[in-house]
Specification:
Order of helices and strands: HHHHEHHHEHHH
Shape: globular
Distance between the termini: 79 Å
Largest sheet: 2 strands, antiparallel
Strand content: under 5%
Oligomer: single chain
Number of helices: 10
Amino acid sequence: MIRGRRRRLPVISISKLIPNMITVMALCAGLSGVRFALNEQWTLAVGAIAVAAILDTLDGSMARLLKGQSKFGAELDSLGDFISFGVSPALILFLWSTQELKSFGWMAALFFATCMALRLARFNTKTDDPTLPPFTYRFFTGVPAPAAAGLGLLPLILSFEVDFGFLHQPHFLAIWQVVVGLLMVSQVPTYSFKGVRVPQKLVLPLLIVVGGCVAWLVSAPWQFFAAFITTYLLSLPLSYRSYLRLQRKVDESDDVPSDASPENKADESPKDSSDADPANVMPIGKAKP
């Protein structure tokens, strides 16, 4: 009696699962921010979102490095971004201040989270669009998810260092959430900072700047995060101007007419009736048989 062969289960290399593991870690970190907010541990809540943002930048790089990109990983990353940078910041701000507005505060939180979902859905549908000009891959359309979470939490971060009363005002925070939500779903081009090339002469100064930023981050983390997010906010008009300049160059290059060669002109010119095949010419007044 011949026994049937056992069907071997599909095996996946552990290296290809590392990006998905990092994505799950980012999801857990972002959702843990809500738990810290429920306990009124606001610094830990913001810190959890910051950890999620750092992990979110790593999972994509690890996926490309380990060749572990997959449709499952892309969908998991989008769902994790929605939780970590859409739902969690909205709930943190609601628990911190906007719950005093009751229904209106909750509406602002829902608006922020909904804009995050729409922004991620638009990003997934426009990925690798061959019809877009090459320079567009230097930009995002609208504010990306981690940056939007940082902008939304900027008043809370500033309140750790300065004692400005308006930062805790629920009406101001509700309006701020709406503004950031609109930036997410807008058509404003923002820098993606992917594939940025540094000239060799600027490598050493850049390393010095990075070392200074790390020292600043260790000694005064909330000042660093506030300055970093504010700098990004100020870069939005610059990115819009840069995008328009590149788009103008592309339009000008497309509008330049190419000189037609004599052969093309001869091909495009209408043929004289005398050159037509007599067999295909039908005399006037006679019908086809």
